[in-house]
Amino acid sequence: MLKKPSTNYSPQSQTSAGDDGCDGVIHFGNVDWWYHNRGHASVRMATRIAKRVPTVWVNSIGMRMPVPGKTEIAWARYWRKLKSLTKGLKRDQESGMYIYSPLFVPLYSPAMLRLNGWLLSLQVKIVCWRLKIKHPSALVSMPTMTPAVERGKWVKVVFDRCDDFTTLPEADKEQVWGLEKRLLEISDAAVYVHEGLMERELGLVKESVLIGHGVDFDQFVAARPLEGARTPIPASMRDLPKPIIGFYGGMDEYRMDVELMIKIARHIHPSTLLLIGPKQMDLSRVLAEPNARHIAQVSPNELAAHAAHFDVGIIPFLQNEFNEMCNPTKLKEYMALGYPIVAMMLPAFKPHESLIYTANSHDEFLAGIDNALKENDSSLIEKRRATVSGSSWDKVAARVAKLLAVS
Question: What is the band of 295 on the pLDDT scale with cuts at 50, 70, 90?
């Protein structure tokens, strides 16, 4: 059932569409607003576009059916999605963006995808009617929503090419690529965060744009200034033994290296391994280590206040096919904070090798942490910050808004 949004959009604030402009954006999201990582690049863009024009974030309908005994935390995934579906249409007070949890069938055969396309398209039309959006553009981050996009009438369609979903475990690679290719063909543009993925798909879409990532630079710098006190330490971190080796963000079994995290905890004991973010995987083995701690998801506005108290920021990712095409937003945020960073080597990190400690094995990663903790070159802080000082989410969102024909 489509619930009435908690706050109505003011008619005076609604943008009027010109001859070629849109009066609203429907963002077919790749995460669920109610339980996934809201620091994701797609969310950062959407919340800023919502400042310009009425924007609806349509929660992800997923890529695969969780299978108990095969998919990690399968039952938890069922439960959290059921809770999300009860929320209907709501408005986020801070950004002004609307969040919609669509009804769909959690099956991914070609027939079910067509059915879900019809269901989703109908629901989006009703949402647009409710919000008086007559000329929407579509920003699409999830290929399983392609059948719905194909059924819509849009001013512009932009494919947010944030990941290579064909490499997602348990997904049907051939089917997913078919959906992605269809979406590339009907899109007016595709925006990329990874140059390698963009180069691979040149010629498959009308316009390819490398947008990269932004960073809330001033916020992160202010949280950890070169001189003076850092932002007050959050209560949840006050009693943690120092130094703190930290990571924040979405944690999925196909992204995070569990064995490495366990080794890190044991290597730095009695110091703290701190993980911040929603549990999207089974972390029980890591958290069984006495010096490993977990803090549930915090809002993007609270991230800097927490991360400022890390002594080393880590990116303990698997070197797998999925991560080959990733470009973590946290890298620029860590660099804005200025402290040492240790990461498993991936293509996205190569341009920054001189400023971070990269590793190609677990032993190299642990040695990187040791070297990071001994770092005493303050010029590296300034160099890291200078590298990302010109980046901003407002600039990224402005480029995407232009492609969407947002006035």
Answer: very high
Q: What H or E segment, with its residue span, contains residue 286?
A: helix 284-287
The predicted model scores a pTM of: 0.86
Residue 5 has pLDDT above 60, yes or no: no
Residue 33, pLDDT score: 87
Give CATH 3.40.50.2000 domain extents, the chain: 18-214+392-403, 217-388
- Pair 141, 183: CB distance under 8 Å: no
User: 383: which 2 tokens?
Assistant: 């160099």
Q: What is the pLDDT of residues 337-385, one digit of tens each?
A: 999 999 999 999 999 999 999 999 999 999 999 999 999 998 999 999 9
Distance of alpha carbon 244 from alpha carbon 111, whole angstroms: 50
**Omega before 243 cis (within 30°)?**
yes
Q: Using 50, 70 and 90 to split pLDDT, how confident is the model at 18?
A: very low
d(CA 91, CA 243): 40
State the CATH class of domain 18-214+392-403. Answer: alpha beta
HSE-up of 15 (CA within 13 Å, CB side)? 22
- Kind plus residue range of the DSSP H or E element containing 272: strand 272-276
In angstroms, the CA 253 to CA 316 distance is 12
Q: In the prediction, which pLDDT does 91 show?
A: 96
Return the residue matching tokens 């080393």: 312
Q: What is the pLDDT of residues 112-155, one digit of tens each?
A: 999 999 999 999 999 999 999 999 999 999 999 999 999 999 99
Q: Which helix (H) or strand (E) holds 305?
A: helix 300-307
pLDDT digits (tens, 9 = 90+) for 252-282: 888 999 999 999 999 999 999 999 998 788 9
| CA distance readout (Å), 125 to 144, 158, 374 | 18, 18, 57
Q: Residue 332 half-sphere exposure, CB side, CA atoms within 13 Å?
A: 23
Q: Which amino acid is at 194?
A: H
pLDDT score at 4? 45
Give helix 330-337 / helix 300-307 axis angle, nearest 10°. 50
* Domain range 217-388, CATH architecture: 3-Layer(aba) Sandwich (3.40)
- Sheet containing 244-248: give its strands across: 292-295, 272-276, 244-248, 312-315, 341-344, 357-359
Question: 139 forms bridges with which residues in the sheet?
Answer: 27, 158
Name 353's Cβ contacts closer than 8 Å, sequence gap at least 6.
none
Crossing angle (nearest 10°) for helices 330-337 and 378-388: 140
